Amino acid sequence: MYSFKDQFNLDIQKYKNIIITSHINPDFDSLASTLLLYLFISKKFPNKKIQIIYKTSNNGNIKVKFPLSKLVNYTTDIDNVLLNNSDLIIFLDSNSYKQIGINDCSILNDKRLICIDHHASDPDYFDLQYIDINASSCAELIFDILWKDEDYNEEIAIITLLGIMGDTNVFEFIKPQNSKLFHLIGDLINKFNIDISHLKKTYMGFETKLIPLIQEALNNVEIIKLHRFSIIISYLSEVILENYNDYEISEAKSLYSTVFSQNFYGVEVSAFFYPSQDFIICSLRSKPKSPSVLEIAKHFGGGGHIRAAGFRIPRSNDLTIKQIVRNFRTEIENIPIIII
């Protein structure tokens, strides 16, 4: 019986035009995953045409502080790119066509589809998939499945570590059942004598331009009670789209979530709403022994993990972020809460 890696390699051998993609507004794990896979296929199958493609509505302003980011391509019309430039499409760090930004699923009908992911939401259809909801990150999965037994270099180690850092908040949120991950982290650091503090600066560094966004987020903070738990809710208004692009807004969300919302005493759950060019996005986080934010996200059509999840609503002139936040406060009272 073929292993996933065996079948994966057979698929790569069979198809010439390969596109690697992931969710809109890539984070560190998404970028690490796509780059790790691109480098693996390029090394093992040098004659293949491989592209990393993300959908974005602001591709002219994307600035990514990530190794090899020049290999990443952005488009506003991902349907057309996938339709005309691919035989095989590999979905990473997402198991949903919608999260990739695909509007017309019929473009996938004659494509070979592969998914590698670690999210707990119900997946769309794939010809081949590897989903492990206990993995810390998709980068961990890519390394474990494909790179672990290969001759890899320091660049691969650094990209893997950055991906893991991105989805564990610098190794803070590693589940007890995944404690073996610390062995991998130690092996990667020791093998190449990597300075973890330098990687942390790469992950945690932010531009001063984001300060007004953080100020607005803090000005809009509200704390409500859900049963016996406290939820901190905040948002950024649509006005910020006049001066900030999607990437900068996503960076501000990461800064707010990492430094502020997760560190207030007595607050178990955070909900942060912010606009992009196309959507209103809600990022949800929770602490151990508190409500699963995955269940909250599912109620609004989203997904993710028990501790980190989210959902998005298409932007509309008839519905402001303030109204969405108000509706969220009302509706969350009716959602069954699962304590984990």
Task: Summarize the SSE layout with pairings.
Elements: H1 4-14, E1 17-21, H2 28-44, E2 49-55, E3 72-75, H3 78-85, E4 88-92, H4 97-100, E5 112-117, E6 128-131, H5 138-147, H6 154-168, H7 181-192, H8 196-204, H9 211-219, E7 222-226, E8 229-235, H10 246-261, E9 269-275, E10 279-286, H11 293-299, E11 303-304, E12 308-314, H12 321-331
Parallel strand pairs: 1-2, 1-4, 2-3, 4-5, 5-6, 8-9
Antiparallel strand pairs: 7-8, 9-10, 10-12, 11-12
Helix pairs in contact: 2-5, 2-6, 5-6, 6-7, 6-8, 9-10
Q: What would you say this structure looks like, in words?
A:
The chain is α/β, with parallel strands linked by helices and 340 residues long. It has two domains: 4-203, Alpha-Beta Complex (inorganic pyrophosphatase (n-terminal core)), CATH 3.90.1640; 208-334, Diaminopimelate Epimerase, Chain A, domain 1. Helix content is 38%, strand content 20%. Strand 7 (222-226) and strand 8 (229-235) form a beta hairpin. Helix 2 (28-44) packs antiparallel against helix 6, helix 6 packs antiparallel against helix 7 and helix 9 (211-219) packs across helix 10. The longest helix has 17 residues, at 28-44. It is globular and about 55 Å long. The two termini are 37 Å apart.
